Amino acid sequence: MCGRFALYSPYPSLCKALRLPLEPRELAPRYNVAPGTWITVVRHPSDEAPLVMDEVWWGFRPHWARATAPEPINATVEKVASSNYFRGAFAHHRCLVPADGWYEWQPLDGGKQPHFLCRQDREPLWLAGIWSERPDGRPGCAILTEPARGVARAIHPRMPLVLDAESLAPWLDPRLTDRETLRRVVHHLDPERLTHWPVSPRVNRPTQDDAALVSPAAS
């Protein structure tokens, strides 16, 4: 799954990677982004609207759902295109969630050890997501997950769907709605480009948010 991540790359570098026009804006670095908070995404607010980088709520509940409906933070690649809950957003409301890395917890005797997973070159990651207008009128999103690949398999059986550079534009293209077409043109980042290391259990507490959280834990 993907239940916690970090984003501390500066806004201009994220815009440059997607060829977005720069705006007079700054992003505060976040080292412990938790569900149920506003997170930065890249999306088309509507089919005709230009691409923007803005904020959505991390928690997916479509506008037609009841107030008691689930509010998942993840959607699996196996079901996102066919589930009644997700398929409309998968076809029409896809987004990218920028991250410098994500956290995962490795089961150990007597507890779990958190790890930070990121690119070996420390470039930002682009996580595939879907969004929908929620019943309260605010946009909310879920991050897609897939079976873990490469080094991530040693930590957890699942991981976020991390896209390669060539897949970013087609993933965001509102004209692409067919599931099979998307499968052909959208690909995950080569898992051999990922690395990880154990970090402090302080990350378990969402109130903790500082750069030391992504540093290797003291042995």
UniProtKB/TrEMBL annotation:
Keyword terms: Covalent protein-DNA linkage, DNA damage, DNA-binding, Hydrolase, Lyase, Protease
SUPFAM superfamilies according to UniProt: BB1717-like
Domain of life: Bacteria
EC code: 3.4.-.-
Swiss-Prot/TrEMBL GO biological process terms: protein-DNA covalent cross-linking repair; proteolysis
Keyword Transferase: no
Main EC class the enzyme belongs to: hydrolase
Ranges where the record places region Disordered: 199-219
InterPro entries according to UniProt: SRAP, SRAP-like
Protein family (similarity comment): Belongs to the SOS response-associated peptidase family.
UniProt name for this protein: Abasic site processing protein
Lineage: Bacteria, Pseudomonadati, Pseudomonadota, Gammaproteobacteria, Oceanospirillales
